[in-house]
Amino acid sequence: MVATTEQTITTEIISTGICSGQLIDDVWYPPAEPGTVALGESNHTDCPGKGRSLVPCVDKCSYNAGSENCSSTPKFDLENLVKINCNATVDTIMSEVRNSPLTSSNVMATSAAIHILTSVGANVSRSGVLDIVDYMGRVGKAMKNGSLEIDLFPTLVYLGMTSSYITPDLSHMNNTLRQSIGKSLAQIATNGKLDQKSKRFKLKTPAFTIEAVDVHYSVTNGSVHFSPQISGNNSLMTSVNVTIPHSAMRNALSNFNSTTGVMERKEGRVAVILYKNDNYFPSNRSVNYVVSVDIGAGNHVRDLPEPIRIDFPRIEEELETMNPTKQKLIRNKLTCVYWNYTQERWLTDGCCYNHTSNPPQCLCTHLTNFAILVKPEKFPNDHVLSSVSLVGCLLSVAGLTLTVIVIACSRELKKFRSGSILQHICINLSIAYVIFMAGISQTRNPQACTAVAMLLHYFFLTSWFWMSVYSSEMYDSLVRVFSKYESRAMLRNCLFSYITPAVVVALTAGLAFNTASLEESTICGEGPTARPNYHARNSCWLKGLPLTLGFLLPVGILLLYNSLVFILVLRELTAQNSRVQSKALKRTVRQNLIMAVTMVFIMGLTWLTGYLMLISENETYLRITGWLFALFNAFQGVGVFAMTTLRREDMRQIWWNPIRRLTIRNSVTLTPNQSTRAGSRRSISRTFSTAILSIRLDRKFSSKKV
Length: 706
Fold this sequence. Notes:
single chain, Chondroitinase Ac, Chain A, domain 3, 4 domains, nine-stranded antiparallel sheet, six-stranded antiparallel sheet, 28 strands
């Protein structure tokens, strides 16, 4: 057995008051608003409690809304008071009407009875729920084909309330039965009779809101607007604005008479239903609200010259959850769709998303059940991590820039290729960091985002290629003692480090764009577009195969090469260090060793964590590896600056001496200790140069002797 829970249902019709509570036949009917029904409460021992009778509350002033002469008071409609047997159940009532013909009187009585039983928490079996759905379908079809004429109020109130109560029990139904509820509601709303004076109806339930109004072509000179409201999941009122243009009304309410050759104008019903969710439209798509728009004039309205506009104020393209433990950014991809009852799925033809509108707006050129699909794309949005990355990038750019300036100011360093190579590494890393900070989040502009991804791809690759050149230069200077100096080596290095990455980027981007499939755009004003898999949707950086084959694979190869060269250089440095007795030379060789280790460690470990991020999609694992990758990547420039400009004595003196002179410019002479230390540094420098020359001459002599 399935239990239903009691809920408060209200309708909104313009009124001057409410129906006062009234005792009728020893049954108390509490106060009610016009357009609603009051459930009777009885203290009889044979049939106690609430829910064995009801009476509608009506207001004659609603028929003359806005009239100052109306003095009518809302009253209970005793002619439509309905009582049911104390022992009645949904199953017994449905079994009685299952094969009986549908008439206005028995449909109203049956609808009232099942509303009474479902509204007070009575147990309803699954078969009973299925019988209710089937009965609503019969009523809707009969009203559509004209075999049944019935007043919209209170019949739709009864059936609408019942539908709302049984909505939580639809999970066991197949898709055809579930969608038949929404279809039946639309058929009843567009074909039921409205009061000839008010010509309008509005019903609000926890599951949906219905608005209906009768219009005539001759009095419809402009657009028709609806703003149905419904309580959302967070108890806030949600409204959807629907605008039906005059051209749609003209097409729907006019019919060409082939006999007389005259375009006839007629009256029709405009009905709008706002559903809280997609319970009546089962699919695997994420839908927040569904809006049904129909003009019950007997014509199938399509290909409208001016589209129907539906605004969804409560749906945002981008929102951020502020959970302190799991901060995520949810970027919604919005798609305007309509429900196809035949295919039982959401389709997009005839609808498009107006991305220039705020709030989000759907434009559709036909009438049916509309919705805006929300495809949330969630990804971590750690504010602390973002701040650390930004600060790290700024520090790295500053450190790399200072390194380039120091090398440019050093006459000694400019004499060697290693200094120029280090400048190229720093310049390319600096450019990559600046582009990263300025453009990594420019995802709203596809062309700009693609350009940013390609530039980042290129400059990070050039940094790695220059690092391999730096390793080769270190190998040539410390291992290949007799290598001949080549005057065009720097030109060759530039061609290798700048052209090769350009080829890799061009091939990667070209393959990504050539393999992209054309997709019909759901954005208004856009034709079919190619959707390449070059960069991610949530950031302007590579993803998938372009990331793996176009970046991580070349970086991995260069990392292995640098590691091999590092081992060879490390062995040679160790061998030289064991043969050199000078303390100054040992200290200098040790500094070179530390610098080589640090350069490989900083640049290699950064992208090693990039590899590790591809292994698992576990949230905790990605958070840890994401932090490591961001920290290593952000502070690469700081590490390069620390191991070159700060740690190396010759480079430190270039920027430290002017600062020291500035602080002691009031001093005329140096103290004896300062003079001694200055002389010691010059002596160390001369000793290091002499020792290097001795090593090379000793090797040359040994080779000749052999």
